[in-house]
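Pasting as-is:
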Amino acid sequence: MTRSGPPAALVASRHREAYRLDAERRARGCVQPVRLRGQRNLVDTRTGEVTTLYDSANELDGQVYVRCGDRRARLCPSCSREYKGDAWHLLLCGLAGGKGVPADVARRPCTFLTLTAPSFGPVHGARGGGTCRARRDRPRCPHDRPLWCTRRHARDDRQLGEPLCEDCYDYVGHVLWQWHAPELWRRFCIALQRELAKAVDLRVAEFRKACRISYSKVVEFQARGVVHLHAPIRLDGPEGPDGPACGLHLGTAELEHAVVIAASRVAIDSEPLRDGATRRLAWGTQVDLRSIVDTAARDSDRCGRVVHPEQVAAYLAKYLTKTTEDFGLPARVATPGQARAAGARPHAVNIVRTAYRLSREHEDYARMRRCLATLGYRGHPITKSRAYSVTFGQLRLARRLHRGGRSEDASAWDVRLLAEDAVPAGFEVVSSFVYVGRGLATSLPHPRAGPVAA
């Protein structure tokens, strides 16, 4: 008597489970991986001989999974955690050394700068756990709305950051300042260089030959929907971190003094609006500076005037995984109505509405429509000077090399990447990949079926 095999349903169930586990392993925790199909070949440029380095047809489903790399924790926790770790290393190496950056940078003049936006109108705030805006005189605005609030707002209160009076709040100034914030930073860097050159009685051209300003800038959104900028700033010699320190008589105190003066002198006149008026845009009066010293306590309160490099790196890295989701905005916003339908806070909707209107009033603000999801901010969340530290690309390459060197953790895709990064002389890598989809595939193609169309 012959014994029958397992039921077809059980075989299919085990088949699907094996496929699911294989897909999750190749995606390495990414919830929205990009699925590609194709191959990468190594071509001998002299003979034309082709050697296949990687072919997605060898995978169980004929596809390769590439992690999305999204930094937003709300969209992909795994890739966001990886991005946060890379940002921490990038920031820390510029303050304490490592990853090819000499440890000598920890002894150079360095400060942690925070630049804020000016006020565009009173808003609800946490005020360190105290009352929001307690006023004995109980004033009211021209629209007969109270300019006081005796509530104690929690950190998750949706009223936090909302203006006390929407009609009094300067939304146009808010959006224009947000749009010009990257240009304000560029002009601040130029002004800082001039102030430091003046402090040592040198011309700017001579100062550049003796000193280099290195920095990394991280953007954080405040509860009122406007950005403020955090930046560790370091003084190097003319060769950057790899060469000797700056030979000029400049210390952290001189650097911080020059920062305050430069921030107070930077201003921009916006393009004229429909009524012909322009706005004078400048930094807010709150300029916060904290000296970065490697001898400071790692667990001390950040409110101290001296902070440890690891404190600064951890503080800044955590903000890079957030964007404007706290305001209820989706990843992409095309119109104010879309922001309102997504459940965005009223204040955020008003900012989007103002940015949308300005984008149609002046041709210089036409690109503002692409930045509605970031409330009119057009810059990157993190930037750095060329000589500050390592790059994200170097850190990702090191991770690929590490994964490829571990036999128990290396995949065919990792081996393909290693071959790409070490192309021998006389050879060329030729790739041919097509986009299939995004996210983990839910079903495995039937063995008898032909290849899935890209």
